[in-house]
UniProtKB/TrEMBL annotation:
Alphabetized UniProt keyword annotations: Coiled coil, DNA-binding, Stress response
Any one GO molecular function term: DNA-binding transcription factor activity
Underlying gene: hspR
Coiled coil: 78-105
Domain HTH merR-type: 16-81
Name of the protein in question: Heat shock protein HspR
SUPFAM superfamilies, per database record: Putative DNA-binding domain (SSF46955)
Keyword Membrane: no
UniProt keyword Nucleotide-binding, yes or no: no
Taxonomic lineage from the root: Bacteria, Bacillati, Actinomycetota, Actinomycetes, Micrococcales
SMART domains, sorted: HTH_MERR
Superkingdom of this protein's organism: Bacteria
Length: 152
């Protein structure tokens, strides 16, 4: 069975000449966008720019928006917001995975109840509760709903 490897879109692999060719721009334009903070590549230890696949996609998007008459400050704001959305999406996915792991790690369903003194007590699933003294107030879901994205 073949192993599936995901492509790391953020891996800094392209030198400026290759990134310029892939984005159909002049290398000087890429340098200018870097100086402006529009599309900022990673740097090697020697200081050479290294662009990722995501950078190339951003450069193509900048060219498209610019051709449609958008100003560079407006384009910069759009890229900032897209980056923030991606960061938040990654954070949500990470938190969901951590929750799934935590739920799977704990055997048996747990139920939280309020004790007669107001304290919160944890009960194992199936435990009989004397209703006069304890009331079930919260039960964690066993499964998280699948995440939806704009790509779906």
């Amino acid at each position: 069975m073949a192993e599936h490897h995901e492509i790391d879109e953020d891996a800094p692999i392209f030198a400026i000449a290759a990134a310029a060719e892939l984005s159909r721009m002049h290398p000087q334009t890429l340098r200018q966008y870097d100086r402006l903070g529009l599309v900022v590549p990673a740097r090697t230890q020697g200081g050479s720019r290294r662009y990722s696949l995501r950078h190339v996609a951003q450069l193509r998007e900048v060219a498209r928006m610019s051709a449609e008459g958008m100003s560079l400050p407006a384009i910069m704001r759009i890229l900032e917001l897209e980056n923030r959305v991606r960061e938040l999406h990654d954070r949500v996915a990470d938190l969901e995975e951590r929750m799934r792991t935590e739920i799977e790690r704990r055997p048996g369903a747990r139920v939280f109840a309020a004790g007669s003194t107001g304290s919160v007590v944890t009960l194992r699933s199936g435990t009989r509760v004397r209703r006069a003294t304890e009331v079930v107030v919260w039960r964690p879901r066993q499964q998280l709903p699948p995440t939806t994205t704009d790509d779906d």
